[in-house]
Amino acid sequence: MGTPLPRDPIADARLNWERHGWSDVAAPMAAITAIMRTQQILLGRIEAVLKPFGLTFARYELLALLSFARSGALPMNKASALLQVHPTSVTNAVDRLQDAGLVIRSPHPTDGRTTLIELTSDGRALAKRATAVLNSEVFGQSGFGDQDVDQLIRILGTFRRNAGDFSG
Amino acid sequence: MGTPLPRDPIADARLNWERHGWSDVAAPMAAITAIMRTQQILLGRIEAVLKPFGLTFARYELLALLSFARSGALPMNKASALLQVHPTSVTNAVDRLQDAGLVIRSPHPTDGRTTLIELTSDGRALAKRATAVLNSEVFGQSGFGDQDVDQLIRILGTFRRNAGDFSG
DNA sequence: TCCAAACCCTTGGATGTCCTAGTATATTGC
DNA sequence: GCAATATACTAGGACATCCAAGGGTTTGGA
Asked: Is the pTM of this model over 0.90?
């Protein structure tokens, strides 16, 4: 992403939609496209911050989730549900975190089908350090105004509930 | 995704952040996480709609971009800049679209370094059909209220400009 | 003129996501 | 108690994204 474009490509796409007679959906198209692009930008920032720790966002999310669990351990299926990703994605992340010595797999005490993911002390320490940098470098400099943050949380929260993410 | 979770995992994460003394960045953390999740949901809907056409979102975006170019052709580097993805991603998408007979590569008339991507008539027709379904099935049923759509476009537009996406 | 720097595209490698089985373990129902 | 169904995890494959490197083409300054 070298030089900024002279024009906003999403605004241009919206104009194209309107010119082709799709005015009724041009605005939501622009909003959705903007969400996709914003996610891409934010993910880039996050991954850049995590790279020195040898972490990706997917692995960090799992580490952070475990660090908030009282016991520091969670069943794989629970992690999959909470992170809202496919079970195979969790398998993938655990494989790599385990190779790095940040988590270990252990059998569930009563259910032979289930595998527990457990944070090692290294894993806990790394999660803490990575979170500190993420907080200061990304979340603390999001570029969103306080009011806009509230709006985003409200709008996207409603969307996610309607999409069936949660019922609360 | 199976059953909705009983609680909003992002709201829970925000509470965890506050409990750990990171209240100052808890809200932006929640907003950013919500953007990531919303993107995931929307991408899932879009890919589901495009699948019957043999398209992915990345390929559709390229097809749509070409269909709006007067000549139906664009240099690869221009497409990369407008779609805001890495050049190798465009190479990948063009490879597959070309295999499907939807675009062809042609040499640039004056610059030997540049390759033009050109829409075939099949490609143009498919883009049209896919856009129609995307408009009715996704953009027309986004789940965002009209006011919220405007808010998203404003908030994310400001963010993208500040992030250096465009200067206009 | 000529060569170094800049630019364009592709190849190869690493990650992540999802989907479709396939294997192992639990639970249910008869 | 045993068979049928459901659940949990993993293996393999398809795609997409990025980065690093390499080979060809242009451009621009010495």
From this structure: yes
